[in-house]
């Protein structure tokens, strides 16, 4: 049996472990989605930057906000790359969660795939 992992496999495993260790309340699928996102970008997830983005969401939403559910890790990933993540979040918040979700689902990317799966799981749970 060959135990050699490719560089890409090592990166996704490293990202998955780092995100899982630092976001223990997130679901496995959200963690896998985020790990894949950063790995496709070819980078190690900067956990401090992710935590800063999470803090922006937490400080600017109510406890039962839809931005704290399935959308949270997607938002963190999208905010991560922005020069001003707080401004980006406020623009999304102004549009509303439903509009943001609709826009995401129109795309054919990792975020849309994750959200479609999360919605399917909720319907049949």
Task: Write a concise synopsis of the structure shown.
With 125 residues, the protein is an all-alpha fold. Helices cover 70% and strands 0% of the residues.
List keywords for this structure.
single chain; 125 residues; mainly alpha; globular
Alpha carbon gap, first and last residue: 38 Å
Largest sheet: none
What portion of residues is helical?
over 70%
β content, as a range? under 5%
| Oligomer state of the chains in this structure | single chain
Strands, total number: 0
Helix segment tally:
7
Give the overall average pLDDT.
88
- Judging from the principal axes of the Cα atoms, what is the shape? globular
Q: How many structurally independent domains?
A: 1
Rg, rounded, reads: 15 Å
* Helix-strand sequence: HHHHHHH
The helix/strand class is mainly alpha
Which stretches are low in confidence, meaning pLDDT under 50 for 5 or more residues running? none
Describe the structure.
With 125 residues, the chain is mainly α. The chain has one domain. Helices cover 70% and strands 0% of the residues. Helix 1 crosses helix 2 and helix 4 (71-80) packs across helix 5. The longest helix is centred in the N-terminal third of the chain and has 16 residues, at 7-22. 25% of the residues are buried.
